[in-house]
Design goal:
Blueprint: H1 13-30, H2 34-44, H3 46-63, H4 65-68, H5 100-136, H6 138-152, H7 156-167, H8 172-202, H9 206-213, H10 218-254, H11 266-273, H12 282-309
Helix pairs in contact: 2-12, 3-5, 3-12, 5-6, 5-8, 5-10, 6-8, 7-8, 8-10, 9-10, 10-11, 10-12, 11-12
């Protein structure tokens, strides 16, 4: 007597499909690269999107400043001094009759150029020093870090002021380059110490020891394995550093040691118009708002990047 085979419990097609789909989805989720996960978190961050929008808008304003500015930022008109905001001059005019809207639009070029250039210059100098100090250690580490400690011993604004006094502020492109160099020197130790700390933790990992055991050269290990693992904190610090550099440039210009006239500068406009703030408040209000919005945009975007690139956040 033969018996019919009993069906296997739980073996329905629908249940099998559900299990397969669940396993496939889990595998697909696990196979996502860290970069893809970071991009997804960045898209979900309202703070980062607002900051990115502000930054993109400022970059577009700086690029198309010639087309957006209604008048020349340096042409003065003694018959139009201290004009209140109107259709002809939406943000009024200063004590020389120059259109404030045009000066603010063109001033974005100086602020962004100095902020980005100084940070990139500090990045290209500080990162290699930090990687060498952290990777080799010993006397090399001590020599590099003592120099960085010496620079950090000075407050950032005091050191920037001292450097600009030594460089002698001038107008035009040369003056902008001097400001960029002074701010870059101040920020080099920040990247050197940041990268050194990251390298000290990464170089003890198993894959670094394996590369050394295989006879891979030190420079290949540094650029192929160590540097990619340091990129996340470097990117975040760079974004936030641009905001700080813009503030330092505005401060130097306000003190008369940064960008010199007739080059449009938000900090210089604050300095030149502060004496008339009681009677003509808009002269200092709009340059101050420009600095505030720019720094806010980079800070929001930097905070969003920090949250998105943190591997501990899911």
């Amino acid at each position: 007597m033969t018996t019919a085979p009993r069906p296997i419990s739980g073996g329905s097609v629908g249940e099998a499909d559900l299990r397969s789909a669940t396993w496939t989805g889990g595998r697909a989720k696990r196979s996502e690269t860290p970069l893809a996960q970071a991009v997804q978190r960045l898209r979900k961050s309202t703070t980062a999107l607002i900051g990115a929008g502000i930054v993109i808008a400022l970059v577009l304003v700086a690029i198309f400043a010639d087309a957006l500015a209604p008048q020349s930022p340096t042409t003065s008109d003694q018959m139009q001094t201290f004009q209140r905001p109107s259709w002809d001059h939406p943000l009024g005019t200063d004590q020389l009759g120059r259109d404030m809207l045009s000066r603010i639009i063109h001033g974005s070029r100086i602020s962004l150029a100095v902020g980005v250039s100084s940070v990139l210059l500090a990045l290209f100098v500080g990162v290699p020093f930090g990687m060498i100090a952290g990777f080799y250690g010993g006397r090399t580490d001590n020599a590099i870090m003592r120099v960085m400690d010496l620079i950090l011993a000075f407050p950032i604004y005091l050191l920037a002021i001292i450097l600009m006094v030594m460089f002698t502020p001038t107008a035009g492109l040369i003056g902008t380059m001097k400001v960029t160099g002074a701010i870059a020197i101040v920020r080099i130790p920040i990247y050197a110490r940041l990268v050194r700390g990251s390298v000290l933790s990464i170089k003890e990992k198993e894959f670094i020891e394996a590369s050394r055991a295989l006879g891979v050269r030190d420079w290949s290990i540094i650029f192929r394995h160590v540097l990619p693992n340091c990129l996340a904190p470097i990117i975040v610090t760079t974004t936030l550093g641009i905001a700080t550099s813009i503030i330092v440039e505005a401060t130097l210009s306000f003190l008369g040691l940064g960008t010199q006239p007739p080059t449009p500068s938000w900090g210089w406009d604050l300095k030149a118009n502060i004496a008339f703030i009681q009677a003509n408040a808009w002269l200092s209000l709009f340059p101050g708002l420009a600095i505030f919005v720019t720094v806010l945009g980079f800070n929001l975007f930097g905070d969003g990047l920090r949250d998105a690139l943190d591997p501990r956040l899911k």
